[in-house]
């Protein structure tokens, strides 16, 4: 029997688990990526260098290889492309219009607003001419962000109009469409909801609290999945998540959503039709829920049946982020000792020796993180902090090592 050929968009480090898993399930794999040297090329059966945001070029590659399925489950930038190619070739997919609902924050706001959810006050701006009027209608404090990017790139929080023009230009610089979203700040507790939709029925796989840095409130210092029996606010969180994915039209597939609990309201902030980053998708969700969402997405793309049955009482997980002062990294010490701490699932540095640490402007500027897994909330935080305390970094020609923050 001919093995199915799956086309995976992206060939970087975050796609490696998907490529490995697809091959272990007996599939052949084609990967495509914009860059000529990517780690997944060596694992895949075939690879092509092509921009995964380019719909027609990706379709041409997929057609030439006669693929049996396509997926982009680890990065926003290829979600719409995968949906477009699947639609054109009659393969399983969410549909191109649905993919746009999840990758364009302007559409996202409009659809959740129409769906009856509580959303921030918002305006869409595509030129500097209407900037001040839009900000006045929304009122300060407010958030300025690109409608079609990820990881907090180009996002600013403004208390007043002093830096409005600069914030707009920063957001526009990261917006592929050139459109910028201006929305009111919603105060409250930030949460993440991970789940999976099967035939229009969403199931919750995990709920986490986000703890922001005090001086950079748009960037988290910790993502904590407490585990244990659902809390008193679980039902309204689950309801808001289900209503959000329904409003955006997702019938099958994984989702990763961010909300703010503001009093009695659960306000949707952002939602992606892909797995969560920083190993949430590959390590955390399978452990806490008992559901390997990565495996289910591969089976979905291959046209196979799936079954999502999370365990009734979730386990705990904690992602502790690493922060360093600006400068060049000259030495990293203690990773092996930290990784040996029982309960540590992974330690990852985005930057290596000789690379520069910049200002913490968005999520991708965090130097790295520690992932811990355990049965209880207190235990998992202790494990993460113990491992983190064993790591130190020397910057430039500093005489002393910096313990990581």
TrEMBL record:
<dbReference type="InterPro" id="IPR013815">
    <property type="entry name" value="ATP_grasp_subdomain_1"/>
</dbReference>
<dbReference type="GO" id="GO:0005524">
    <property type="term" value="F:ATP binding"/>
</dbReference>
<dbReference type="InterPro" id="IPR052032">
    <property type="entry name" value="ATP-dep_AA_Ligase"/>
</dbReference>
<keyword id="KW-0808">Transferase</keyword>
<dbReference type="GO" id="GO:0016874">
    <property type="term" value="F:ligase activity"/>
</dbReference>
<keyword id="KW-0067">ATP-binding</keyword>
<keyword id="KW-0436">Ligase</keyword>
<feature type="domain" description="ATP-grasp">
    <location>
        <begin position="109"/>
        <end position="302"/>
    </location>
</feature>
<dbReference type="GO" id="GO:0046872">
    <property type="term" value="F:metal ion binding"/>
</dbReference>
<protein>
    <submittedName>
        <fullName>Phosphoribosylglycinamide formyltransferase 2</fullName>
    </submittedName>
</protein>
<dbReference type="Pfam" id="PF18603">
    <property type="entry name" value="LAL_C2"/>
</dbReference>
<dbReference type="InterPro" id="IPR016185">
    <property type="entry name" value="PreATP-grasp_dom_sf"/>
</dbReference>
<dbReference type="InterPro" id="IPR040570">
    <property type="entry name" value="LAL_C2"/>
</dbReference>
<keyword id="KW-0547">Nucleotide-binding</keyword>
<dbReference type="Pfam" id="PF13535">
    <property type="entry name" value="ATP-grasp_4"/>
</dbReference>
<dbReference type="InterPro" id="IPR011761">
    <property type="entry name" value="ATP-grasp"/>
</dbReference>
<dbReference type="GO" id="GO:0016740">
    <property type="term" value="F:transferase activity"/>
</dbReference>
